[in-house]
Amino acid sequence: MSIKDKVVVITGASSGIGEATAKKLTSAGAKVVLGARRIEKLEKIVADIKNAGGEAVALATDVTKRDDNDALVKLALERFGRLDVTFLNAGLMPNSPLSALHVDEWNKMIDVNLRGVLYGIASVLPTFTEQKHGQVIATSSVAGLKAYTNGAVYGATKWAVRDLMEVLRMESAEEKTHIRTSVIYPAAIQSELVDHITDSGMATGIRALYDEYEISPERIADVVAFAIDAPEDTTINEFTVGPSRQSW
Ligand SMILES: NC(=O)c1ccc[n+]([C@@H]2O[C@H](COP(=O)([O-])OP(=O)(O)OC[C@H]3O[C@@H](n4cnc5c(N)ncnc54)[C@H](OP(=O)(O)O)[C@@H]3O)[C@@H](O)[C@H]2O)c1
């Protein structure tokens, strides 16, 4: 089964990579279930998708709450009768040097970027295990592959996603539950990500860097579509994707 008619949950769907992916997948015939906290943005995206002839529903979702993740999966099963893929994409990157001690922001990143992914996996595992079919795609970062100053906690959460997705792949293969996994490591992608940096020393510099290098979130959407479209017996486990001009 290719993308057409697959049912896909997407977290972090209200902007950036999640929004672009929702639009890309529905244009290829998938049905999407969109989660994020800003329901008004999700409703506008659902309207755009429906106007273009696609199928989408949305639910206000805070990925740091386990019940909210479960409710997204329940909505997919109730509305569309099946679930094939979850794209665990919600994340935030309020970078700062460790010495600035933005400990509340450290905790938020752990809650959204790591705990949110874990809850997302927990929400689909019962369904995927029972049906012996399913795909988990997660957005890590190039900061999940190499260290960046000012990004210690962000990077730590994204390195952790790499590890747990690899173990999910290995355990599913051993348990013969046929769950496919893909981790995406984006570099500078146009989105709202850097708008939430509060550290005054960081915000302007990163914004300028992104303005110079960033590429469209549709590039990541294309990769998600490619991973979903791969034959069911094939896992394409890792994609590193960024501007061809970016060296860092
Ligand atoms: N842009 C880049 O250069 C880049 C590079 C590497 C990795 N990434 C990763 O790509 C992913 C998507 O980010 P983006 O670049 O598209 O940035 P974005 O435009 O800021 O999107 C982030 C998404 O996460 C959602 N989100 C944040 N906290 C949430 C929560 N508690 N519960 C549910 N949803 C939450 C936001 O929605 P609400 O605010 O409506 O909840 C939004 O939809 C993130 O995991 C990010 O770390 C991005």
From TrEMBL:
PANTHER family: DEHYDROGENASE/REDUCTASE SDR FAMILY MEMBER 11, DEHYDROGENASE_REDUCTASE SDR FAMILY MEMBER 11. GO terms for molecular function: oxidoreductase activity, acting on the CH-OH group of donors, NAD or NADP as acceptor. This is Short-chain dehydrogenase reductase. Belongs to the short-chain dehydrogenases/reductases (SDR) family. The lineage of its organism: Bacteria, Bacillati, Bacillota, Bacilli, Lactobacillales. InterPro entries: NAD(P)-bd_dom_sf (IPR036291), Sc_DH/Rdtase_CS (IPR020904), SDR_fam (IPR002347). Keywords: Oxidoreductase. It comes from the Bacteria. It comes from Amylolactobacillus amylotrophicus DSM 20534.
